[in-house]
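Severity: low
Component: inverse-folding endpoint
Summary: output formatting inconsistent between runs
Steps to reproduce: submit the following structure tokens with default settings.
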């Protein structure tokens, strides 16, 4: 399963954008200038902050620090180009590799943890594999695995930390690892702070003193390093990249310029509306809803994931940038998706045909987005119908054999009509010279081969149906 997902996630590259480019600039600054100031590189992004006439990324440093060793190695590989277009293609290939390290690899690991989570719940190998693949191919994890953003890495770190802490017996080393992962999720994206706090509360209430102290030690170590980082970079331990946010993203009168009282109308927009509805673009996420039972058993296995879900939903309904800008679906909710889907087993068993249909529909929708264009402009940038229903837009272009439509690279401030813009996003089949739907044929053949090998291996072990 892991090999299949590696192939699937690595096959598509979504190109650049302000968010991705800001992370890319931070990585370049760390490796090339031994600094986190991105002033020399920031001409390709608006996701910046300012301090003392210097430009910084407004993203948490976790992803950039994670990617810096990869960039240090990959950037030293020999690259040759006979034209400007070829030079940009080489950079985009490098960015593709970094995007897989940023999101594709964490997406694979997250799906494996999801499989192990369902096995712990008592699911069979077949049920766990089906649920894990349904999540890995039918949720926003799939298209966002091909983009240099922090959401998938944050989701992986938080859910892996919860998986370690929720085991029957938690050793000190296990709790320490969970604390390190939860705290690093916060360094990657400060929106993970409430979830990390919920996990801390869980360890304290569980009554296992050693585990609680170990989790606190791991989280405290990362927190201390983060404060030192802020003090060294910005002159104050409590000034973060996010607090340097450009005024362009702030609304006067709101807390931190971004947070207002929650708006109930956004719940519909975040759930079922074609614009950013989670259940509209990922119907498979309705499977946990089909698992609902009354009365709900108030135990940690239920309460902690529900609390994490509530924290992310509450933030998104209060955030002035709740729509997430360019993209498909409510991307700020991605870190809570594994917690939501962890409730799916009961519904999967109760309504197998319906759930299989929802999984197939979701996989098709997410495949269309990955193949066509993840970075669809939002309503603040365009009034066209494509922004109102990004999923339908991607499906229509898939049937027209128009793939890899994003023309903004990691070096571009905006999408470009120049010839090099053709290679701002791509799939591996297109790099081989194939066009349209034919560029997806190598993926189909390789997936069929891997599926056959997996089936044969399972049959030999007596696990195949």
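Observed output (run 2 of 3):
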């Amino acid at each position: 399963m892991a090999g299949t997902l590696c192939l699937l996630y690595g096959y598509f590259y979504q190109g650049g954008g302000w968010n991705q480019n800001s992370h890319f600039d931070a990585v370049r600054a760390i490796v090339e200038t031994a600094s986190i100031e991105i002033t020399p590189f920031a001409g390709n992004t608006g996701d910046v902050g300012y301090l003392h006439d210097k430009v910084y990324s407004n993203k948490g440093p976790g992803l950039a620090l994670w990617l810096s060793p990869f960039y240090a190695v990959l950037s030293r590989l020999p690259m040759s180009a006979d034209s400007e277009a070829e030079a940009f293609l080489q950079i985009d290939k490098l960015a593709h590799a970094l995007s897989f390290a940023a999101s594709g690899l964490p997406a694979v690991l997250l799906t494996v943890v999801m499989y192990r989570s369902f096995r712990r719940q008592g699911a069979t190998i077949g049920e766990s594999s089906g649920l894990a693949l349904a999540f890995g191919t039918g949720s926003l994890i799939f298209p966002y695995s091909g983009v240099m953003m922090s959401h998938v890495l944050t989701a992986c770190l938080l859910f892996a930390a919860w998986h370690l802490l929720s085991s029957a017996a938690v050793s000190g080393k296990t709790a320490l690892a969970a604390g390190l992962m939860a705290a690093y999720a916060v360094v990657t994206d400060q929106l993970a702070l409430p979830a990390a706090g919920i996990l801390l509360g869980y360890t304290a209430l569980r009554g296992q003193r050693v585990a609680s102290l170990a989790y606190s030690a791991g989280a405290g170590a990362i927190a201390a390093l983060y404060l030192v980082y802020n003090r060294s970079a910005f002159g104050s331990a409590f000034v973060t990249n996010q607090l340097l946010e450009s005024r362009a993203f702030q609304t006067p009168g709101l807390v931190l310029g971004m947070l207002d009282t929650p708006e109930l109308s956004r719940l519909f927009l975040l759930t079922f509306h074609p614009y950013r509805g989670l259940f509209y673009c990922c119907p498979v996420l309705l499977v946990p809803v089909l698992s609902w039972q009354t009365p709900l058993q108030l135990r940690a296995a239920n309460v902690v994931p529900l609390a994490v879900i509530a924290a992310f939903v509450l933030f998104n309904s209060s955030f002035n940038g709740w729509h997430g800008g360019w993209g498909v679906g409510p991307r700020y909710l991605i870190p809570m998706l594994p917690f939501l889907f962890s409730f799916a087993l009961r519904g999967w068993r109760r309504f197998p045909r319906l759930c299989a249909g929802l999984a197939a529909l979701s996989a098709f929708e997410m495949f269309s987005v990955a193949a066509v264009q993840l970075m669809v402009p939002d309503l603040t940038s365009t009034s066209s119908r494509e922004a109102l229903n990004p999923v339908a837009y991607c499906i229509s272009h898939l049937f027209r054999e128009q793939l890899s439509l994003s023309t903004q690279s990691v070096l571009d401030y905006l999408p470009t009509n120049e010839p090099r813009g053709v290679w701002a996003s791509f799939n591996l089949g297109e790099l081989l010279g194939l066009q349209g739907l034919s560029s997806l044929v190598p993926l189909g053949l390789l997936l069929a081969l891997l599926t056959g090998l997996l089936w044969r291996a399972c049959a030999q072990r007596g696990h195949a149906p």
